[in-house]
Design goal:
The complex is a heterodimer.
Chain A (H helix, E strand, L loop, with lengths): L6 H4 L4 H7 L2 H15 L4 H13 L2 H12 L7 H15 L9 E2 H11 L5 H11 L6 E2 L1 H28 L6 E3 H17 L4 H10 L2 H13 L7 E3 H14 L1 H10 L2 H11 L29
Antiparallel strand pairs in A: 1-2, 3-4
Helix pairs in contact in A: 5-6, 5-7, 7-9, 8-9, 8-13, 9-13, 9-14, 9-15, 10-11, 10-12, 10-13
Chain B lengths: L9 H7 L2 H18 L5 H14 L8 H6 L1 H20 L3 E2 L1 H11 L5 H12 L8 E2 H13 L1 H16 L39 E2 H14 L7 H9 L3 E2 L1 H10 L1 H7 L30 H11 L1
Antiparallel strand pairs in B: 1-2, 3-4
Helix pairs in contact in B: 2-3, 5-8, 6-7, 7-8, 8-12, 9-10, 10-11
The chains are: A mainly alpha, B mainly alpha.
Chain lengths: ~300, ~300
């Protein structure tokens, strides 16, 4: 490879660094190995199409698809239509032979979907659902991946709300016992779910405010008041792990049940004062993965 | 000689298509480009780069070394030259060597002069600097000289060797446009009027030459015209001079279509080309144009 002489000094980034940073080496190596495997009749055409596939207006396409996916909440029927349309638009590619959603594009989309989630958490999910750059991602994999990200978004928001309910004064720390108790219940409920929607329903019931306050009360009153705290990050991470344990199943279950959606509803009725009058569950038919709490337990 | 591309080793396959040459050049170009455009997206750049190679638009303003480096580059350059300057031909202007060289230097800054001289020699059998050549003559001779440069050198060597071989009793000086004598027949080569016929080097026996060329084509790694074309040219005469041979090659239609970038002589003035039609190269008979393909595909969306 030719290096430009004398450039190293002027540039903040040398040629070699530039090439490394932009992964040119990897791209070329991949291109070459594909070429050698496939022995296309016209290597130049092959390379032109290969690079087109990698670079085909990815940013624009992904942004559009992302926006489309945000149009309606995933619990609405229209969501699936949008998801299909987004999938189609991402699968289009000018280069012949690359019709289909490639792993690279899929990954970029997932990253976009997870951008509001703390990285430590989203990384975990992505690691599990990502596909390799050059794999073609079939629709149902795409759909469950997208859904997982969207649900995680909601879930994270809920856990944040939950935590701030514990942490009235917004100190970033909350009573450890409370947190642990809540997390334990959450874990148990989630573990109970199978792909059978009914179990999710039962889990939701378990997390209903009554049960929740019961167990919290139990936990608290049985010990001396403990002042050790948990930070919000830690809380979030543990909660996320609980989610991820069940991510594939949850997602499938969530497709039928509007779990997290109703979590929204009940939670909005919740407030962190001592009154539990607001916690009327008018959601008998709904599944409450209700993370509301009673901060009255003191 | 076209082996199945699957039976070649990886190295042979890559070498045959000059893949590494292009990849190296691609990186070089990318790095140069980055100087002025720091936010370049490499994949997009490579896409553009290889697309332009595919369409044959990539040689314009490049240095001679690059143009020379692959047959495809040479052919593309010839085509670019034709497209840029065919209107000269329309007016019937005649130019001399220096003028053609200047024209070429507009397209390639360091185009070597001696190549133009060699081209002129094919046409004029002389390197008279002031002799004028028509665009059409120059174009085809130029094509031959540039595309088959190495092969022509080899032919020359062969030719020289054969002229030193024991002479046949019938050997005489051959004059290009002389009338046929009963003892020799030579294929008439019509030369452009302004040129005075000058006795070329002694001819050699066509049959011998053809045999030598056949052997050469078996062993050479350089591009060369198809054997059938060579046979076609040499079969019709008993003796042939070197430049007579070259001129015949230059004007031969099958040789021209073998390279595949210039139309037949009658049509070089025609403007009927779409600029986006890809250059048909011998390598990729089934290639479809990317640009045209894109529009069809968008109809299928």
């Amino acid at each position: 490879m030719n290096k430009m002489a004398g450039r190293r000094d002027d540039r903040p980034e040398s040629n070699r660094e530039f090439l490394e940073r932009t992964n040119v080496g990897t791209q070329l190596r991949d291109a070459l190995s594909k070429m050698i495997e496939n022995r296309p009749e016209d290597p130049v055409l092959f390379l032109a199409e290969y690079f087109e596939a990698i670079s085909d207006n990815r940013a624009g396409k992904v942004t559009k698809a992302y926006q489309r996916l945000q149009l309606t909440h995933y619990t609405r029927p229209a969501f699936e239509m949008n998801a299909v349309a987004a999938y189609d638009s991402l699968s289009q590619s000018g280069a012949k032979g690359y019709n289909g959603l490639t792993g690279t594009v899929y990954t970029e989309l997932l990253n976009n979907l997870c951008r509001d989630i703390p990285t430590a958490i989203s990384e975990k999910l992505l690691r599990r659902i990502q596909c390799r750059d050059y794999e073609v991602v079939p629709y149902d994999v795409y759909y469950s991946g997208v859904l997982a990200c969207l649900v995680l978004n909601d879930y994270v928001k809920e856990t944040q709300n939950l935590f701030s309910d514990f942490d009235n004064k917004n100190t970033g720390n909350a009573n450890r016992e409370l947190c642990e108790a809540a997390l334990k219940i959450l874990d148990e409920s989630v573990s109970m779910t199978t792909s059978d929607p009914v179990s999710v329903l039962e889990a939701g019931v378990r997390l209903g405010p009554e049960k929740l306050s019961e167990s919290l009360l139990e936990n608290i009153s049985s010990k001396h008041r403990n002042t050790s705290t948990m930070t919000s990050e830690e809380f979030m991470l543990i909660a996320a792990d609980i989610f991820l344990k069940k991510a594939p199943l949850l997602v499938r279950g969530l497709k039928e049940e509007s779990l997290v959606y109703s979590m929204h509803e009940s939670d909005s009725k919740d407030d962190s004062d001592d009154d539990d009058d607001d916690e009327d569950d008018d959601d008998d038919d709904d599944d409450d993965e209700d993370e509301d709490d009673d901060a009255e337990d003191d | 000689m076209s082996t199945d591309r699957f039976s070649l080793s990886a190295d042979e396959y890559l070498a045959k298509h000059h893949v590494l040459t292009y990849l190296e050049d691609a990186i070089g170009q990318l790095l140069e480009h980055k100087e002025d455009n720091p936010k370049v997206n490499p994949a997009k750049f490579f896409n553009d780069y290889f697309t332009s190679i595919y369409h044959g638009n990539h040689t314009l303003f490049r240095e001679y070394a690059f143009i020379k480096s692959t047959p495809h580059n040479r052919a593309s350059f010839i085509r670019v030259f034709w497209k840029c300057y065919r209107h000269i031909g329309k007016n019937g202007d005649l130019l001399n060597v220096k003028e053609y060289h200047s024209l070429l230097c507009l397209l390639c800054p360091n185009f070597p002069f001696d190549l133009i001289q060699k081209t002129a020699r094919i046409i004029l059998m002389d390197d008279a600097m002031d002799c004028l050549m028509s665009f059409s003559d120059f174009l085809y001779a130029f094509q031959l000289q540039l595309y088959y440069e190495e092969f022509l050198e080899d032919c020359n060597k062969l030719y020289e060797k054969l002229t030193q071989a024991p002479r046949s009793p019938r050997e005489t000086v051959v004059v290009p446009s002389s009338s046929t004598s009963p003892r020799q027949q030579k294929k008439q080569q019509p030369l452009p009027p302004p040129v005075d016929p000058i006795p070329p080097p002694e001819g050699i026996d066509s049959q011998q030459f053809l045999e030598a060329l056949t052997q050469l084509s078996d062993v050479t790694k350089n591009s060369h015209p198809k054997l059938s074309c060579l046979r076609e040219i040499l079969q019709n005469t008993n003796r042939v001079s070197f430049y007579g041979f070259l001129m015949a090659l230059a004007k031969n239609d099958s040789v021209n279509s073998g390279i595949g970038v210039l139309p037949a002589k009658a049509s070089i003035m025609d403007d009927t080309e779409q600029d986006h039609a890809p250059m048909p190269t011998p390598r990729s008979k089934s290639a479809k144009p990317i640009l045209e393909g894109r529009s069809t595909r968008s109809n299928m969306r």
